[in-house]
Amino acid sequence: MKKGNVLVGQSGGPTAVINSSLAGVFKTAMDRGFNKVYGMRYGIQGFMDEQYVDLSDYIKNELDLELLKRTPSAFLGTCRYKMPAIHEDRSVYERIFELLDKMDIEVFIYIGGNDSMDTIKKLSDYAILTGAKQRFIGCPKTIDNDLALTDHTPGFGSAAKYIGTSTKEIIRDCLGFSYQKKNVTVIEVMGRNAGWLTGATALSKGEDCDGPDMIFLPEVPFDLKKFKEQVEKLLKKKDVVVAAVSEGIKDANGTYICQLTAGSESVDAFGHIQMTGTASFLANYIHDELGCKTRAVEFSTLQRAAAHLASRIDINEAFMVGGAAVKAADEGISGVMVVIDRLSDDPYQSTTGVYDVHRIANDEKLVPRNWINKDGNYVTDEFIDYVRPLIQGDYQPMMVGGLPRHLTMNSKGYKDLYNADK
Amino acid sequence: MKKGNVLVGQSGGPTAVINSSLAGVFKTAMDRGFNKVYGMRYGIQGFMDEQYVDLSDYIKNELDLELLKRTPSAFLGTCRYKMPAIHEDRSVYERIFELLDKMDIEVFIYIGGNDSMDTIKKLSDYAILTGAKQRFIGCPKTIDNDLALTDHTPGFGSAAKYIGTSTKEIIRDCLGFSYQKKNVTVIEVMGRNAGWLTGATALSKGEDCDGPDMIFLPEVPFDLKKFKEQVEKLLKKKDVVVAAVSEGIKDANGTYICQLTAGSESVDAFGHIQMTGTASFLANYIHDELGCKTRAVEFSTLQRAAAHLASRIDINEAFMVGGAAVKAADEGISGVMVVIDRLSDDPYQSTTGVYDVHRIANDEKLVPRNWINKDGNYVTDEFIDYVRPLIQGDYQPMMVGGLPRHLTMNSKGYKDLYNADK
Q: Is B268 part of the contact surface with chain A (CB cutoff 8 Å)?
């Protein structure tokens, strides 16, 4: 029997390897004899506006596939869209399934995090309710590593590798400058509720680097006064102090540290209340209290986009879960998310499994309290042992003109480039 | 006749390749039969406190030398110290030359930027005045690329490669998110007076990327209102707008843009006036005026420390100028800075020369006005053609445990590491 088509979408915050999962979906769907692989532009939101592409128009050969694996951010574009509950608004579902039928879609794959798994859950529920033929599979993706039931999420390893490397380079920079000058650097890392990424700054610790002096995760309440005392104590012993903080650290009352500035009504030139970053707030606070030179560093979107420093394990696993999603659907499964199971640490080995998406959607996996030290200002060796295998190996960018080359939907040919406006 | 010793120091802001010059000095001094190579800790300032090391204690084999070439920031530590004029305070000079004599120093090499060349100038002048035997050679180093008479400076190429790559990754990230949402990103790049680094964001422009929409260098006065109008106009045509700005852009009155916030008395929780960054100021301004989502990204110290993305050309040239400094001194020359002469663009070839340091010290090379477009909001093709060869090639980091390994003065052995405090 001739197989139908596959529809794949990307959703939520981009990562360095989300396109490797897209490549895995495409490759496996072609290998398994599906007819076409369509990509939703900007996730389910764009799809409802009938925005989609035929991926074979862009992935024409193995080089394209390899470029796609090395291209950060979402090739197809993503969205942040929460599906209404089925009983709230059936029209949204009717619209989607009408399109799926029209396009002869047999398999619907959504690459994303918590919210995206909610979409898979609702669509597969609706299919069961209505007896629709499509299968719905979730493919995990998030730098935050906060999805339940999977050992870790694709995207996390590369972000952790970037964060570990950059932290080491920043510490090195601080040390080069420290003669008779005390300086304190506060590094801000993404993570509103889960501290996985911030903990990854500890990867910089090793034979050639002491790592950050302190690491604060959102899992433990942050005490501003205690922080100052710890910095003060450290400055008595050493000239350079480096602290890493999650953007989402909160005090004991549950107030985000980054809101403390706004709370005290910092206004800019236009009377606009400023949401100063956490690191910048803490750097100013320490400068003010202790008088030493301070600096705030934010990794910003670079931590999720730095494909030039992706982890080989991560790119390969992202590709693997894409393929596993197609395989599961092809075997008749629906309403699941693909997970990664860790088989061993050294040598590191992993495989894929699937879990009912109802058990995963809208859940949030935090760093276990016993992987954070008693004082709440560092991660334990267990944490490092868990993360270390995920940052191993490199995936050499394809360098053109001195920069990594990416695959994009509107990559220009020589001719276009030379005629482009300056 | 037996040769004496070489003394080498590093000064000013660290770069990704300043240690490659140190490696070049060490290697050539050994090859040419000098006795010892001493390294000043924290430049001339630490040296006056008799802080120095014997480099052979740290560079014991070829692997160490290769690691040193790949280690960012200043291995020896740097300082920012301005020598007094000779007639102002001879005691400083007497102190230094007393130490040089005591240590049997024949050659004094200082790796640094404008200020460091001022040190070389004054020391070599003093040697002439007093008939001292030592030779003094400057070795160029600065990410800012603002030294006169040399085609470019070691450190610039690697910073430009990092900035071009990261800009491309940030633009890619912005595009992945843009469905029916306008967003404006402002990227802030180092450079108080010279726009070389900010111009390097244009390297991201190519077949797979449009590059930033606008680039503002400190060489041209910045017009806030015109900036807003340009952004507004661009947002009518496209959803994603990216602007790159130098930290040092100023308005027509010479006021730094980053001071505009402070000028209107933005205060934090502690009544402390905040020196908000330029990008953050502009992002807030655009958000306030146009209501769209905005984001500020600062490359911060990463742009000078990211050895993991160093340019091969740059590392090799940094090594070459270190060697050339020793060679010049060995041939009896003093009071000069080594420069890089570009021989050809394609294939790129360069060689070294020397110039009287009096012609270089305290001068500042800006981006020529005709390498910036008429509107003052982009660099020209001539600019790109000048920079492109300098970012070519990679120098693969030596990866250990998933991160680049560095050579450091207190690298711990296995034993130390396992006994270290957690």
A: yes
Nearest Cα residue to B360 out of B161, B163, B124, B179: B124
- What is the pLDDT at residue B181? 83
Question: What is the nearest CA distance from A116 to chain B, expressed in angstroms?
Answer: 15
Q: Which residue of B has its CA nearest to A17?
A: B173
Q: What is the pTM of this model?
A: 0.95
Mutation target among B10, B169, B400 for the A interface, most CBs of A within 10 A = B169
Best interface-test mutation with A: which of B209, B257, B403, B422 has the largest number of A CBs within 10 A?
B403
How many Å apart are CA A396 and CA B394, to the nearest integer? Answer: 10
Q: What is the model's pLDDT at position A297?
A: 95
CA gap B371, B383 in Å, rounded:
6
CB contact under 8 A, B179 and A206: no
Give the pLDDT confidence of B10-26 residue by residue, as tens digits: 999 999 999 999 999 99
Q: Where are the alpha helices (DSSP H) in B135-265?
A: 156-175, 196-199, 224-237, 258-263
Nearest to A266 among B267, B287, B400 (CB): B267
For residue B180, which residues of chain A lie inside 8 Å, CB to CB?
Answer: 42, 45
pLDDT digits (tens, 9 = 90+) for B375-390: 999 999 999 999 999 9
Give the separation between CA A81 and CA A91, rounded to whole angstroms.
16
**Is the Cβ of A169 closer than 8 Å to some Cβ of chain B?**
yes
What is the token pair recorded at A59? 């992935």
User: Coil, strand, or helix at residue A61?
Assistant: coil
The greatest distance separating any two alpha carbons of chain A, rounded to the nearest whole angstrom, comes to 77
Phi-psi region of B121 (alpha: psi -120 to 50; beta: other; left: phi over 0): alpha
CATH 3.40.50.450 assigned to B5-155+306-360: yes
Q: Is A417 on the interface with B (CB under 8 A)?
A: yes
Does B359 contact chain A (CB < 8 Å)? no
Each domain of chain B, given as residue ranges in start order, spans 5-155+306-360, 159-305
Encode pLDDT of B120-148 as tens digits: 999 999 999 999 999 999 999 999 999 99
Q: Closest partner residue to B46 among A179, A267, A403, by Cβ?
A: A179
| Angstrom distance (rounded) from CA B46 to CA B81 | 10
Give the pLDDT confidence score for residue B259 in this predicted structure.
Answer: 82
- Which residues does chain B have within 8 Å of residue A348's beta carbon, measured at their own beta carbons? none
Check whether B173 has a pLDDT greater than 80. Answer: yes
pLDDT at A269 exceeding the cut of 60:
no
The lowest-confidence range among B228-232, B303-307, B413-417 is: B413-417
Identical fold between A5-142+306-361 and A156-305: yes
* CATH number, domain A5-142+306-361, options 3.40.50.450, 3.40.50.300, 2.60.120.10, 3.60.15.10: 3.40.50.450
Q: When comparing pLDDT for A416 and B83, which is higher?
A: B83
CATH of domain A156-305: 3.40.50.460
| B392 or B271: which leads in pLDDT | B392
- The residues of A annotated with a catalytic role in the active site are 144
Q: What pLDDT shows up at residue A266?
A: 46
- How far apart are alpha carbons A103 and A7 in whole angstroms? 9
State yes or no: is B394 an active-site residue.
no
How far is Cα A261 from Cα A274, in angstroms, rounded to an integer? Answer: 8
Complex ipTM: 0.94
Enumerate the residues of chain A whose CB falls inside 8 A of the CB of residue B419: none
Give yes or no for A263 touching B (CB within 8 A). Answer: yes
Transcribe A34-55 into DSSP letters.
-S-EEEETTHHHHHHTT-EEEG
CATH number of B159-305: 3.40.50.460
Interval A204-224 mean pLDDT: 97
Question: A-chain residues within 8 Å CB-CB of B288?
Answer: 268, 270, 272
Q: Is A133 on the interface with B (CB under 8 A)?
A: no
Q: Average pLDDT over chain A, rounded to whole? A: 92
